[in-house]
Specification:
The protein has about 210 residues and is α/β, with parallel strands linked by helices. It is built from 4 helices and 13 strands.
Length: about 210
């Protein structure tokens, strides 16, 4: 099951974002992310959160399931939405609104990627970048000259890449900035890791 999870980080260029997303079996919105779905002409199946960021939903959304939580809680609405996608049996999760806005929320949201089961394919889309979580092997479509970076999420696994200006050959990242500012050589990048761990590849959109 392919699920879209909409979080509430700031977004402005909706046409650009809409070009990145596809069709989904289920759409889950975290509270204030309702505004993003409205701008993208998408209807959620479920809205989850404490409902402090929106007052009402459109009349045509009357069949949308609402799952309300108290305002005082130990997790964000975004974490609740991602956890719900996992509970619903997602095999693939696309996320919008994961990054941007408050730095603490962005850092915490990226940390959440660690806790999604490894067998689920996870991608985060924003106007300016796409974040690919990699737990094994993954092929990524690109354009020659695209800028991208690779960072460790969990541990220091060995990383093998093809299709990059600076490829890694079963190498570990020697420092937090070792994988920063690489470049795609063509339209396909292959990335695989071995050993315990998890990485993320961040690809930047062309203006």
């Amino acid at each position: 099951m392919k699920i879209l999870v909409a979080l509430d980080a700031p977004m402005d260029n909706y046409p650009r974002l809409k070009a990145k997303i596809s069709k989904y079996d289920l759409v889950i919105a975290a509270d204030g992310a309702v505004r993003h779905l409205q701008a993208l002409s998408l209807t959620p199946d479920i809205i989850v959160g404490d409902f402090d960021s929106f007052k009402s939903i459109p009349k045509e959304w009357k069949k949308v399931e609402l799952i309300k939580y108290p305002k005082q809680k130990d997790v964000t609405d975004g974490e609740l939405a991602i956890n719900l996608a996992v509970e619903k049996g997602a095999s693939e999760i696309d996320i919008i609104g994961l990054t941007g806005g408050y730095l603490d929320h962005t850092l915490a949201n990226l940390e959440l990627l660690k806790f999604i089961p490894k067998n689920i394919k996870v991608t985060s889309f924003s106007e300016d970048e796409t974040v690919y979580r990699i737990t094994g092997q993954r092929t990524i479509q690109a354009m020659a000259g695209d800028r991208l970076s690779i960072l460790n999420l969990v541990g220091t696994p060995k990383i093998k890449t093809t299709g990059l200006k600076y490829n890694l050959d079963n190498s570990v990242l020697k420092s937090p900035t070792h994988g920063i500012s690489n470049e795609a050589k063509g339209n396909k990048i292959n990335v695989s890791i071995s050993g315990e761990g998890m990485i993320m590849l961040i690809a930047y959109s062309r203006k």
